[in-house]
Design goal:
Length: about 230
C-alpha cells in the first residue's frame, strides 16, 4: 500500500519533506495430501511505515492536537443490549496499523469430517506511533519524522493525548508473542467438539517500558452442530 511517496529527484528526508508511508505484506501457503487428510501451512509477514495512514489537514503544516486531519482512521459504531452506542476508532486498512513488523506462521493437519489440529506462532514488533500520533513534516534535526524507521521507540511529533492529565507518553517498542494450539473432533458427522489454548506475552505493554511484561493464558472449548 502507498500512502505517501517522493517522486524521483525529490528529497525523502529533511526539512520540508513529507514522511514516506508504505506498507508491505506478503506470504506463502501450501497444502499437501497426507494419508486420509491434508497437511497445510501459511507463512505471512508485514511491515508498515511509522506514518502510514496518518496525515494532517492537507495544508502542508504539522498536525496539531485536536486537528482531525485526513487520517485513515474511522469510527465504528457498536451497539449494546441496553441500547447504548459506543464509537470504537480503528484504522481503515491493515489490522495492526502503522509502525509494525509482523510475522505469522500457521500449520496444521485436517481429516475432513473427522478431526483437525492446528498451531500458530505470531510475533509482532510495534513502535510507538499509533492512530493518535501527530503527523509532521520533516526537519533537519535528530527528531526528523521523515527519517523514522519501523519500529520507533519515541513519538517525537507528539500525540493527541499529550494535553490529557495523567497521560503517560509511549517510550518503547512493544513486543508481542502469541503461541496457539487448537483442534477439533467430530463425534458425529454433523457434531464437532473443539478446544483452543492460547498463551500471549507483551513486553513493554502498551509501548511503555515501565509497564514491563504482561502474559495471559486463555482456554476455550465448545461444540458445533451443522446441517
Amino acid at each position: 500500500v502507498v500512502d505517501e511517496f517522493a517522486l524521483p529527484g525529490e528529497p525523502t528526508s529533511g526539512a520540508g519533506t513529507h514522511p514516506e508511508a508504505f506498507g508491505f505484506l506478503g506470504g506463502v501457503k501450501t497444502a499437501y495430501p497426507m494419508g486420509d487428510g491434508v497437511l497445510y501451512g501459511v507463512l505471512e509477514g508485514a511491515k508498515t511505515d511509522p506514518y502510514l495512514y496518518l496525515r494532517g489537514d492537507g495544508t502542508g503544516g504539522d498536525q496539531d492536537i485536536g486537528e482531525i486531519g485526513i487520517n485513515y482512521v474511522v469510527g465504528v459504531r457498536s451497539f449494546s443490549p441496553d441500547g447504548n452506542i459506543s464509537i470504537d476508532e480503528d484504522f481503515l486498512g491493515y489490522e495492526y496499523g502503522c509502525d509494525a513488523f509482523v510475522l505469522n506462521l500457521t500449520g496444521g493437519y485436517k481429516v475432513f469430517k473427522k478431526f483437525y489440529v492446528e498451531g500458530t506462532f505470531f510475533y509482532m514488533l510495534h513502535g510507538v506511533n499509533d492512530m493518535y500520533t501527530l503527523w509532521a513534516i520533516g526537519t533537519n534535526d535528530s527528531t526528523d519524522p521523515s527519517a523514522a524507521e519501523t519500529p520507533t521507540d519515541s513519538v517525537d511529533t507528539g500525540s493527541m493525548f499529550d494535553a490529557n492529565p495523567g497521560y503517560v507518553p509511549k517510550d518503547a517498542v512493544e513486543t508481542t508473542l502469541l503461541l496457539e494450539l487448537k483442534g477439533g473432533y467430530n463425534i458425529l458427522p454433523n457434531l464437532e467438539v473443539y478446544g483452543q489454548l492460547d498463551w500471549v506475552s507483551k513486553q513493554n505493554f502498551g509501548n511503555v517500558e515501565s509497564n514491563g511484561t504482561k502474559t495471559d493464558t486463555q482456554v476455550s472449548i465448545g461444540t458445533t452442530f451443522s446441517f
